[in-house]
Design the sequence.
């Protein structure tokens, strides 16, 4: 559903529950070179390219958002590295006054070729999706080959200079239990920060069920029994979706993102911009605010500078998006409504 009503102007992005929004997740494309079961259908029709925001349009939105208090940006997809010269966008976003951090979530298949230019452009952090270290399981989940390319991409990122690399692993009951310990061993050895994410109802096939959710608590129990003692880490950022633990032996840390069994909505500071130019205030939002239309509508007919008019429209839409944010996504409650879009259409 596209929202049309706009609230009164306010100096910052604070919702009705007092949550201040400082993080914007930007999907740069719905295209991907994998077909992960928890994200995409096997056969998919992507958006026409002219319906996707240009880099110039994305940068314009970020400039307006930075003026309203957005401080951190995460580029997502689809797979962001399939978009040509993504390092050019990174460089432009890093230079915007007020933006303190630009990060990216990627599946890593194209990272070996692009890690160096991304680092040079100012990308600060990488999240790499990796659910298994066994090719047969990797292919079962991703429905494509490519484990060796992901591992090569991680090595290239380290060589390029990245020091903050997270591994995101989706936990699915009956499928990924045996992947937990090997992933932990890899991350402890290489210095990656491992995060386990509960399977969410955002798969395009609509096959999700609560019975498939391998909870963060269960994953912690497996790690404690097979790897070593975990102790809670000091929570430095209440809005961070992961709850982090430290290995008692000093072997780094591991995080747990548990949106199903332990929702973290009360501290959420995130907003989203889809590749086709829609603001969303939650992964599970059923309402969107059409910023692409504002970007591509000439405001000069209002008798004012068209640029300032468009920027004001973007700001109004962003405030409206924040004002309409619900207290929580409601997974597991009778009120929960699954969004019409799948993960790849929203942005991971």
Sequence:
């Amino acid at each position: 559903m596209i929202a049309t009503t706009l609230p009164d102007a306010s100096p910052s992005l604070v919702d009705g529950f007092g949550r201040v929004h400082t993080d914007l997740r930007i999907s740069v494309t719905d295209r991907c070179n994998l077909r992960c079961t928890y994200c995409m259908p096997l056969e998919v029709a992507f958006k026409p390219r002219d319906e996707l925001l240009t880099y110039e349009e994305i940068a314009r939105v970020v400039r307006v958002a930075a003026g309203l208090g957005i401080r951190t940006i995460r580029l997502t997809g689809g797979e962001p590295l399939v978009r040509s010269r993504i390092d050019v966008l990174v460089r432009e976003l890093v230079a915007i006054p007020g933006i303190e951090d630009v990060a990216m979530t990627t599946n890593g298949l194209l990272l070996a070729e692009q890690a160096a230019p991304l680092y040079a452009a100012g990308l600060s952090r990488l999240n790499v999706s990796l659910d298994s270290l066994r090719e047969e399981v990797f292919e079962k989940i991703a429905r494509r080959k490519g484990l060796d390319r992901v591992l090569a991409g991680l090595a290239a990122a380290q060589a390029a200079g990245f020091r903050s690399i997270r591994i995101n692993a989706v936990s699915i009951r009956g499928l990924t239990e045996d992947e937990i310990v090997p992933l932990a061993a890899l991350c402890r050895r290489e210095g990656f920060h491992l995060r386990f994410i509960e399977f969410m109802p955002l798969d395009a096939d609509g096959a999700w069920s609560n019975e498939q959710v391998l909870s963060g608590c269960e994953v912690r129990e497996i790690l404690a029994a097979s790897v070593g003692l975990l102790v809670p880490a000091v929570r430095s950022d209440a809005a961070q979706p992961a709850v982090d633990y430290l290995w008692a032996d000093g072997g780094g840390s591991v995080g747990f993102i548990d949106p199903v069994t332990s929702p973290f909505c009360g501290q959420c500071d995130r907003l989203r911009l889809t590749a086709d130019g829609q603001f969303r205030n939650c992964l599970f939002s059923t309402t969107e605010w059409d910023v692409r239309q504002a970007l591509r509508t000439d405001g000069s007919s209002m008798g004012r500078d068209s640029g300032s008019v468009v920027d004001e429209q973007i700001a109004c839409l962003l405030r409206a998006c924040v004002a309409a944010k619900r207290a929580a996504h409601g997974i597991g409650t009778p009120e929960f409504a699954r969004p019409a879009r799948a993960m790849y259409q929203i942005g991971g």
